[in-house]
Amino acid sequence: MDRITIRTPDDWHTHQRDGEMLKAVVNYTARQFRRAIVMPNLVDPVIKSADAAAYRDRIRAALTPENAGFEPLMTCYLTDTIDPDDVAQGHADGVLTAAKLYPAGATTNSDSGVTDVANIFPVLERMEAIGMPLLIHGEVTSDDIDIFDREAVFIDRILRDLVERFPKLKVVFEHITTKDAVDFVKESGPLVAATITPQHLHINRNAIFKGGINPHQYCLPVAKRELHRLALREAATAGTAKFFLGTDTAPHAQHAKESACGCAGIFNAPYALESYLAVFDEEDAIEHFEGFASLHGPAFYGLPLNEGTVTLECVEHEIPATIGGGDTLTVPFHAGETIRWRMVEA
Ligand code: NCD
Ligand code: ZN
Q1: Ligand 1 in contact with 264 (CB < 6 A)?
Q2: Residue 125 CB: number of other CB atoms within 10 A?
Q3: What is the DSSP letter of 65?
Q4: Is residue 147 within 8 Å of 218, Cβ to Cβ?
Q5: Residue 299 CA, distance from chain mean position
Q6: Which stretches within the chain are classed as H helix?
Q7: Distance from Cα 240 to the centre of ligand 2, integer Å
Q8: What is the pLDDT of residue 125?
Q9: Angstrom distance (rounded) from CA 290 to CA 322
Q10: What is the pLDDT of residue 345?
Q11: pLDDT for 278-288, tens place per residue?
Q12: Could you give the CA distance from residue 320 to residue 332 in angstroms, rounded to a whole number?
């Protein structure tokens, strides 16, 4: 096969940042995807529905004319004191597509996150009643839990109970990194789904330490052992509706990654489709690529499928070492590597 055309895909987990970085990155996502879920973890988190509406305007203003049809799908950041009425109203108004649970301290800009999940039971009840999805960063944060175990422990301590307590709540277990998470999602009912990033399909934890510390392979949840990567590849490429595309593209300036305390996050938006398709190709599962990229996500969210198509061709090309310049110079995922697929410009 030397060309593949699929229905226009969506990205169900992205970080678009704000200010200059927003302008520098959003068109990479908008070029490949019709819609993207936008995470609310700005330096000042997007908590109120009105903040999400204002952020959506800033995102739209940063789009180049050829990407004007791109639709940012906004989320709000759940806190211990979140107002359930505002969340429900934001959803009814078409501003908020979903709400995000960050356990406090789990990742970049998550200090205002939830300290005890019981604090958000009232808002979860409302979301369950109105069919608004809950997106979960599924890691415990206690220092006594090994960083490589935090996702599995989250399932046992928090997620299993949460899903039982709110059986009609739509839950997306975001950017899953373990076989434990794959098994949990498969065993749960149809309202529990998961997104999978390209990096967790390509790398295991060795990549972070190969030949020295590699900050551009570091994200949260951190990549795990090879057995987990293989379970994720099987889950993504098997054609199962519960697993769909969510890049977790998380740009940080090169200097912020390459520092003594480098930020977590991998900037994969520029070649996201190419990166995923390489995996489906290697697994001999290209026939399942469209489901993962373009069909399962909208079905889960209850949104229409996109019109239009994107085409990728099989041509080897090299991913650039850096993208952009100045304060927003970034290093993309796969920098300097050769990749076999390339999106054909519309
Ligand atoms: C994300 C970021 O930089 O905002 N980082 C990451 O490693 N994925 C936050 C997140 O999604 O955890
Ligand atoms: Zn993320």
Answers
A1: yes
A2: 14
A3: G
A4: no
A5: 17
A6: 19-32, 49-61, 84-92, 121-130, 150-154, 160-165, 179-187, 198-202, 206-209, 226-237, 254-257, 272-282, 289-290, 296-301
A7: 22
A8: 98
A9: 29
A10: 81
A11: 999 999 999 99
A12: 8
- Axis crossing angle, helix 121-130 with helix 84-92, rounded to the nearest 10: 20
β-strand pairing of 10-14 with 3-7? unpaired
- Determine what percent of the chain is predicted with pLDDT higher than 90: 96
- CATH fold of 3-343 reads TIM Barrel (3.20.20)
Segment 90-117 mean pLDDT: 92
- Is there an atom of ligand 1 within 6 Å of 89 CB? no
244: left (phi over 0), alpha (psi -120 to 50) or beta: beta
User: What is the pTM (predicted TM-score) of this model?
Assistant: 0.98
Predicted local distance difference test score (pLDDT) of residue 105: 85
Boundaries of every domain in the chain = 3-343
**Count of other CB atoms within 10 angstroms of residue 2:** 8
Rounded distance between C-alpha atoms, residue 261 and residue 74, angstroms: 30
Tell me the average pLDDT of the chain.
97
Residue 13 Cα to ligand 2 midpoint, Å, equals: 6
Tokens (6 digits) for 189: 């009912």
Taking 80 as the threshold, does the pLDDT of residue 108 lie above it? no
Assess whether 248 carries a catalytic annotation: yes
Tell me if 141 CB under 6 Å of ligand 1.
no
